[in-house]
Amino acid sequence: MGRARRKHNAGPQIEVGTENVAKSTIKVNANLNLKGIDESNALILPDKSDTKVKKEQIKPLPRKLSKKQRKNYEKILDQKRKKE
Questions:
Q1: Helical ranges in 1-84 per DSSP H
Q2: Average pLDDT over the chain, rounded to an integer
Q3: Which of 8, 13, 35, 42 is the most core-located residue (most Cβ within 10 A)?
Q4: 43, pLDDT greater than 90
């Protein structure tokens, strides 16, 4: 049987007392133009997704046919034209 591996964080965990920690309060006076945005959090800015413009993808040209393939294709087209 294999040896039991020791876990990285296996030791006893130390608890930190939160009794002595003083709470700090920060007041933010931000005068931002919030058009159509809720004033719940003035620090969050609106995304800029509406300013992004999608690039038009250029369609790749079809592959050039080899001489044999082109001859065969023309032959098939001629047969279809004769049927009409």
A1: 67-83
A2: 77
A3: 42
A4: no
| Exposure on the CB side of residue 2, measured as CA atoms within 13 A | 3
How far apart, in whole angstroms, are the C-alpha atoms of residue 76 and residue 74? 5
Render pLDDT for 16-42 as a digit per residue (tens, 0 to 9): 666 666 667 777 666 666 666 666 666
Greatest Cα pair distance, the chain, in angstroms, is 96
> How many angstroms from the chain centroid is the CA of residue 12?
40
The pLDDT assigned to 73 comes to: 95
- Amino acid occupying residue 17: G
Tokens of 68: 């044999």
Phi/psi at 66 (5° precision): -75, 170
Closest C-alpha among 62, 58, 61, 81 to residue 70: 62
